[in-house]
Amino acid sequence: MKSVRYFFGAVVLFASPSAMPAAETYTLDLAHSSMTFMIQHLGISFVHGRFNEFSGTFTIDKETPAKSSFAMTIKADSIDTNVKKRDDHLRSPEFFDVKKYPEMVFKSTKVDAIDGGFKVTGDFTMHGVTKSINFDLKGGKVVQTKGIQRTGFSTAFILRRSDFGISALPDGIANDVNIFIGFEGTKK
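The structure assignment produced for this chain is given below.
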C-alpha cells in the first residue's frame, strides 16, 4: 500500500500547478480585427456596416478550456455604413441612442472546447439591455511574427435588435442582424 501512495504522490508532484502551462492572455489587435454586420432593408436588399472602435482581451487556457474567457467593448458611435445621414440616424435615440448608451459590452460566462475552437456563452449589453448570447468561435492557431505571439478567431451569428429595445422602422428594417467578427490578439 505504501508504494501505491508513493506512486500517486509522485504523480501529484509531477502535475503540480507550477509545472502546468499557464493560461495565455491576449489583447485585440485592431489592425487585424473587424466587426461587421448586415441587415435587410425592405426585404429586397442588405445594408452592410461596421463598428470602427472596439477593444478587448481574451484568455486561452488549453489545459482547462472552461477557464478561458473573452471580453469586448464596442463604441456605439463608431457605427459606419458609409452613409453619414444614415449613420447619424442610427446614433440617434430612435436606434442606438449613443449619448445615453455609449458602449456595447460582451463578457463571457462559459467557454467550452469544440472541434476547431470554442463555444462561448456570455452577457451582451446593448442599448441598456443585457441578454445572454452564444456563438461558436473558430480558429485558435498560434503563430509567432516579429517576436510577437498571435492567435485569432472568427464567428458569425444573428442578433435580434428588438431583444435589445431597438425596434424602430419594423416595416423597413429586418429584426435579425447578421454579425460577423474576426479578430487577432497579441500575447501580453
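Interim note for the steering committee: The first strand starts at residue 24 and ends at 28. The domain at 21-187 is CATH 2.40.128.110 (Lipocalin).
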